[in-house]
Write a structure and sequence with these properties.
Elements (H helix, E strand, L loop, with lengths): L3 E6 L4 E4 L1 H7 L3 H4 L14 H12 L8 E6 L5 E12 L5 E10 L1 H32 L1
Antiparallel strand pairs: 1-2, 1-5, 3-4, 4-5
Length: 138
């Protein structure tokens, strides 16, 4: 699994993206470095939500398990990502910005959803068997 990395300054201006981040989003380093919110990989219909989540993360109120968001590739297609934001601190201990790691969780979510649906079907069958056994024993 590749991890996309993005660095932002204290004004949330992108200062760095690694090749994995570019590969995931379809945007080049040139497309991204220097950009401020709303970022080009934020889906138009989720800009307010993503801005709110970013502010929450910058205030240190993001969940320890990261935040799940939709990301829009340059070609317009979407994928599910888990994003973690951490303070970026220089050698003197001063915060200079934020570091974000991002992983594509689309396949993991698909498998999880399939397992959930399978479990629900299995539970329904078991409940049906229990009801049938009860009817037969009477």
């Amino acid at each position: 699994m590749l991890t996309g990395m993005r660095a932002m300054d204290m004004d949330t201006r992108i200062t760095y993206v690694n090749p994995a981040f570019c590969a995931m989003t379809g945007f080049s380093e040139t497309d991204l470095v220097g950009r401020t919110p709303p970022y080009p990989f934020w889906p138009t219909d989720r800009r307010e939500e993503n801005a709110r989540l970013l502010q929450q993360e910058l205030q240190g109120r993001s969940p320890s398990g990261g935040v799940e968001v939709k990301i829009q590739r340059k070609d317009g297609s979407l994928f599910d990502a888990r994003v973690y934001v951490s303070p970026l601190v220089d050698t003197k201990g001063k915060q200079t910005g934020w570091m974000t790691s991002m992983t594509n969780i689309t396949e993991a979510k698909r498998v999880r959803d399939q397992l959930t649906a399978s479990h629900e079907r299995f539970t329904t069958v078991l409940e049906g068997l229990d009801a049938a056994v009860s009817v037969l024993s009477v």
